Amino acid sequence: MKIEISARRREAQGTGASRRLRSSGKVPGIVYGGDREPVNIELDHKELFQHLRNEAFHASILTLKLDAAAEPVLLRAFNMHPFKSQVQHVDFQRVSKDRKIHMKVPLHFVNAEKSPGVKEQGGVANHVINDIDITCLPDDLPEFIQVDMGEMTVGHSIHVRDLMFPQGVEPVLHRGENPVVATIIVPALVTEEEETAAAEAVPAPSEVPTTEQAVPAEKTEEAAAGDKAAAKGGEKAEKKEKK
Asked: With CB atoms 3.0 to 4.6 Å apart as the test, which of 34, 96, 112, 201 could cross-link to 149 if both were Cys?
């Protein structure tokens, strides 16, 4: 997919200039790399924002139209406002056809619903990672890498080295590294037997003695009578002392 985006050279620099630029519906940015000096640029916010919502824009060779020229670039970074849907800054890198690039591209998972693990064993697809680092020449850059889950069963995993990469494309891995990409898992369910056992382990409310149940009514009445007698005895003693 060929994606083009227009830009203009940005003369004013600094925080104040960038703030005024954003207020006017523009986005400050920079394009760097190759054998040329970095160039400060400005782009239309609406156009850039729409492009950023396109997955291919993040993993494709883009055509940046700057002044009267056009050059191939990669989107390398962009900053968003903390709570507004506003792009604060964007970075592009020039690319050369004869130099390999290092990119992160998305993974597209297919056929999970047709797999034995989902259809026959009641499992669900689990995507462990959603993108992958690759290296290739610019002309070989894929928009995505496909992950076919059609033959997976419960407990089976697909690793990075199991994937089919287009010609000229290689995953970026350290020695001996082979991360898991996807699995089929069974959701944890509580069986009826487990629920019954849990219910039997907890005593019923009627079986738990309360304070009133633990003290017989007879003893409660005796204790009350004793308290009254003690109170009368105390009153008589006070009267004798006064006499």
From this structure: 112
Q: Which domains does the chain have, with CATH numbers?
A: 3-95 (2.40.240.10), 102-185 (2.170.120.20)
Does pTM surpass 0.85? no
Are the beta carbons of 33 and 71 closer than 8 angstroms?
A: no
Q: What is the pLDDT along the chain (243 residues), one digit of tens a residue?
A: 689 999 999 987 888 888 999 999 999 999 999 888 999 999 999 999 999 999 999 999 999 999 888 999 999 999 999 999 999 999 999 999 999 999 999 999 999 999 999 999 999 999 999 999 999 999 999 999 999 999 999 989 999 999 999 999 999 999 889 999 999 998 875 445 556 666 666 655 555 544 444 444 444 555 555 555 555 555 554 544 544
Instruction: For residue 110, list its beta bridge partners.
Output: 148
For residue 7, the surrounding DSSP H or E stretch is strand 3-9
Are 149 and 208 within 8 A, CB to CB?
no
Report d(CA 129, CA 109) in Å as an integer: 11
Distances (CA, A) of 151 to 125, 144, 154, 157, 171: 12, 21, 10, 11, 23
3-state secondary structure of 46: helix
Phi, psi of 212 (to 5 degrees): -70, -35
Q: Which residue has the tokens 């020449």?
A: 137
Eight-state DSSP code of residue 83: S
User: Amino acid identity of 216?
Assistant: P
- Residue 163 has what DSSP assignment? S
Residue 209 to residue 180: CA distance in whole angstroms? 55
